[in-house]
Design brief:
EC 6.3.2.5, 22 strands, Rossmann fold, 6-stranded parallel beta sheet, 14 helices, alpha/beta, flavoprotein, binds cytidine-5'-monophosphate, 420 residues
């Protein structure tokens, strides 16, 4: 069996002295150990002790140029079979969880493609603090093995969980981790979607409608659609990120305005239609709002009362303007007009029919039968005269970014180049 190689990162804490015993155990088991000491760790154990026990050079600084010549920090982080952090202090765990890399130890932890095992040690309150527990959960979610600390009396006199596990227990966890260690850990943080061009909508104007509309019946009641506004807001955000000048006409939703987006809040379909008209001209319009098809024909100025007779009041409805269809016919029709369709069955057939009925260029159809509205993901089909482009289920942000790429290409084909 080839010799197992451990990269041992020693954080600063009173428990750092136990790392000396750990190095001894690992060497006795025939493993190669390379030690990295944090600046705080150096206060508790000396590089000399660790070098003597590990029979290897001890690394302390990112800026040791000689080491860069002998061995780059990337190589150092990857030539091990397992990276062990012991003691893993609250500070080190926080830095690992947030991906900070401001010294040699944290840089190695961010750059490594090997499994990582952390043995925490800290004061009981620090261990139990919500921030530390959050960091531990993040790290575990990222695939880092975080051992549970021992419980007992602490150097500071308090009692509880937070003591560094005994070196034998860490050695055992190392043996287990090595038994399952892959040659390299796959990246988990792949972006959902990587834009292939920088700000592809720069110089374009994009209009977005989002959210539901509320159609008042009386001062306390209204007719509405189920719509969280999340997809529309994600689209407005992605359009702004892609460099466009964005006007978001939003129905009543409690969502923050995305950076760089101009937002106009409306309540009813008619207000939305007015604001859309006022927002023209626009190069593209993306109508994501779930507009109420009908409104109450008469709005009561006062709350309608139950009169105790058991008779229900009549509710006459009037049809709302179809904003999308109206825009398609207007003299200021945007070069690219996109509608949305939430369907529960025959998604693509219904979308094709809607494309013709509304007079728009694309319908972004999504099947809401399996997934209730308001979720975080969407599986969409872009239906146009040219056919159907079906995408995998993606987070709404990823759908939005991918849509911006497609819109940018289409606008480049339909319009002269955007102004610089
Ligand atoms: O007819 P349906 O409501 O299914 O059409 C959905 C598409 O039409 C969406 O893009 C929506 O924003 C738009 N729409 C509109 N005005 C309406 C109704 C729907 O702009 N009154």
């Amino acid at each position: 069996m080839p010799t197992k190689r451990i990269l041992l990162i020693i954080g600063g804490g009173i428990a750092a002295y136990k790392s000396i015993e750990l190095v001894r155990l690992l060497r006795k088991a025939g493993m190669t150990v390379r030690c990295v000491l944090t600046r705080a760790g150096e206060q508790f154990v000396t590089p000399l002790t660790l070098a003597a026990l590990s029979e290897n050079k001890v690394y302390t600084s990112l800026f040791d140029l000689k080491d860069e010549v002998e061995m780059g920090h990337i190589q150092l982080s990857r030539e091990a079979d397992l990276v062990v952090v012991a003691p893993a202090t609250a500070d080190l765990l926080a830095k690992m969880a947030t991906g900070q890399a401001d010294d040699l130890a944290t840089t190695l932890l961010l750059a490594t493609d090997k499994p990582v095992l952390a043995a925490p040690a800290m004061n009981v309150r620090m261990w139990l603090h919500a921030a530390t527990q959050r960091n531990i959960a993040t790290l575990r979610g990222d695939g880092v093995t975080v051992m549970a600390p021992d419980e007992g009396e602490m150097a500071c006199g308090e009692y509880g969980p937070g003591r560094l596990p005994e070196p034998e227990a860490i050695k055992q966890a190392i043996d287990e981790a090595l038994a399952h260690a892959p040659a390299s850990v796959p990246l988990t943080g792949q972006p959902d979607f990587a834009p292939s061009r920088h700000r592809p909508l720069y110089g374009r104007r994009i209009l977005v409608t989002a959210g539901p509309t509320h159609e008042p019946i009386d001062p306390v009641r209204y007719i509405a659609n189920r719509s969280s506004g999340k997809q529309g807001f994600a689209i407005a955000a992605a359009a702004a990120e892609a460099g466009a000048e964005v006007l978001l006409v939003a129905g009543p939703v409690p969502l923050p305005t995305p950076p760089g987006v101009t937002r106009v809040d409306v309540e009813t379909a008619r207000e939305m239609a007015d604001e859309v008209a006022a927002g023209l001209p626009s190069d593209a319009a993306i109508m994501v709002a779930a507009v109420a098809d009908w409104r109450a024909a008469d709005t009561h100025a006062q709350k309608i009362k139950k009169d105790g007779s058991g008779q229900v009041p009549p509710l006459a409805l009037a049809e709302n303007p179809d904003i999308l269809a109206g825009l398609a016919k207007s003299a200021q029709r945007p070069a690219l007009l996109i509608g949305f369709a939430a369907e529960t069955n025959d998604v693509i057939d219904h979308a094709r029919a809607k494309l013709a009925k509304k007079g728009c260029d694309w319908i972004v159809a999504n099947d809401v039968s399996a997934d209730p509205m308001g979720g975080e993901t969407n599986r969409v089909h872009i239906v146009s005269q040219d056919g159907v482009d079906s995408w995998d289920r993606l987070p709404k942000q990823a759908v939005a970014r991918k849509l911006m790429e497609k819109i940018a290409d289409e606008l480049d084909a339909r319009l002269p180049p955007a102004r610089d």
